[in-house]
Amino acid sequence: MDYLKAFLVGGAICAATQILLDNTKLMPGRVMVILVCLGALLGAVGIYEPFAKWAGAGAGVPLTGFGSVLFKGVKDAVDKEGFIGIFKGGFTSSAVGISAALIFAYIASWFFNPKMKS
């Protein structure tokens, strides 16, 4: 049941994003920024963490989950280290996910033939 819930929630977030892309003139980069900021905002208000616990990976994998992780990392670092935590909290909280994405993308490039779009 957890897999189904994660699939449905993640699919709903992605479908809403696709609708936003199709029905507005917003560029994909701006939509990505909106999703990260929305996740951080919902995390700041205290909505995203209970939602993510309920939805599992369906809420943690999309960019809204990344925004929530960034906010939580900054908040924890500020509580622990003060002002300097504003600058290092987001990096320390999201470093593993970003590193994994880069490493797996590099490994995938060994098996596929990546090339620049022309």
From TrEMBL:
Keywords: Membrane, Transmembrane, Transmembrane helix
Organism ancestry: Bacteria, Bacillati, Bacillota, Clostridia, Lachnospirales
InterPro entries: SpoVA (IPR005562)
Protein known as: SpoVA/SpoVAEb family sporulation membrane protein
Segments passing through the bilayer: 31-48, 86-112
Nucleotidyltransferase found in the keyword field: no
Superkingdom per UniProt: Bacteria
